[in-house]
Amino acid sequence: MTPPGQAGAPAGAAPVLLEARQLTKHYHVHGTRRSRRGSRLAVHAVEQVSLALPADGITAVVGESGSGKSTLARMLARLVTPTSGQILLDGREVPASAKGRREYTRDVQMVLQDPFSSLNPVHDVRYHLTRPLIVHGTAPHGVLDEAIADLLARVALTPPAGFIDKYPHELSGGQRQRVAIARALAARPRVLLADEPVSMLDVSIRLGVLNLLADLRSQNHLAILYITHDFGVVAEIADRVAVMQQGKLVEQGPARDVLQHPQHAYTRALVAAVPSLTPRRVLGRVRPSTTPLLSVSGLDKAYHGRGGGLSLGRQRVRAVAGVSLEISRGSSLALVGESGSGKTTLARCIVGLERADRGAIVLEGKNIAGLSRAKLRPYRKALQMIFQDPFASLNPRWRVGDIIAQGPIVNGTPRKTAAAEARELLRLVGLDPRAADRYPHEFSGGQRQRIGIARALAVRPRLIIADEPVSALDVSVQKQVLDLLEELRSTFDLSMLFITHDLRVAAHVCEEIAVMKDGAIVERGATSEIFANPRHAYTKALLGSVPGRDWHLNRSIAP
Questions:
Q1: How far from chain centre, in Å, is Cα 40?
Q2: Domain over 16-272 is classified CATH 3.40.50.300
Q3: How far is residue 21's CA from residue 398's CA, in Å, rounded to a whole number?
Q4: Helix-strand-coil split of the chain, %, nearest 5
Q5: Model-level pTM?
Q6: Structure confidence by residue, pLDDT tens digits, 196-245
Q7: N or C: which end of the chain has fewer CB within 10 A?
């Protein structure tokens, strides 16, 4: 393997299109301690990183949040100015002139991780794709619509007519990301910097986009820098891997070598934390009972949205279509499906954040469907939800201790007692009890998710609905949270409905799986049975679309 910090372009390899030489970036932020710059602390985001991106090659940069990989990509995209070091395109430094920057921007495009913040909410998809086509001159005015339709089809947004006039808020997170990828492709770049571009996509669409990137690489001799924390993605498409820890490159080399024989302890830890595709033995604590803890029957929920094109009519979208399911006391059920399958809508109906059009939601023998907020309040102690985005679900103006204590206080617990219980819950989820006095923005993503779990546990629920609780977390933090949830299930005798699009996570957590498509459950069974012998074509497609599937299976059977 190439020693850390060196570019390491193999002899006889394709010509290097983009190269970083000893790139360094230091930020200076306000801190509680004084440094040599007064009251500002130096944060070493990237430290002397050298990396070569050859034509017709995909280089994956892997690391946890805060490792510096996104800062590295932003420096290469000229969105962040390096503290020191060089960036070379075709062996030459980029001119400082406006023309030089414009040409560099055309040749080097970036796909950001968060599509919602990178798309203008007041413009539709047509505008977002038309502008780069015109600015970069990649499509004549007369064929713009055909070019836009082709871009949408290449990122699996079909039929294009159903998306071209939609605005960002009318698209799911995965659909918005695909629009962002299409916008980058509109410039016909030579180098593509992709910052976690598929982390928010469904497994089947994820594989399609990865295959698209691989095709673009070979067809256009594209150099791709792919930032990810998912080693399955690395195994699927990467030629070379660079591992970053605390701003430094600690290991790099051919993907096969790094995946199968990692040398650095940090790399080995990251590989070991990846969930396996082989279901682990989850010991359910199902107690015999004639009445399930939760029973949902014939649940329907539809929305009415704006029609496409010039249509002034309203289109009815059936998000949940006659769903029925049961969760026994002490059991865990994974609800698996792609974006738009109705998973989150079903969960929101169960907890009362959405009102179902018809059907029954029976919790401990009582039908709670359609109850008002006031009448639903006594049942909220038994049913709590952990949300996908921990930062958006925590009040930024409240201290963490107050956030956790709010539920018990509303339910009659004295404030002093609730505050003491909040500190104990922080300890149980692996945080310092003194963190109760801090605010949400002072924590990492994994820590905020632990706070969300503590808040859900504060009222001692019997059923937890976890909506994609680890999808935005690093692989090592993801494993910690999953292990924590399993431990807390035993400690608090919890049942759980775990919503995810990642079959690897479902295999790690739950003893049962229900597969959801187009608002309906198409298959349900024991996790081991679903993985070993899927019956429905959609389930088979999901299992076959897991990135790096062969690598996952080889890991599972390795001695």
A1: 32
A2: yes
A3: 44
A4: 40, 25, 35
A5: 0.75
A6: 887 766 777 777 778 878 887 887 788 999 998 888 889 888 999 999 99
A7: C
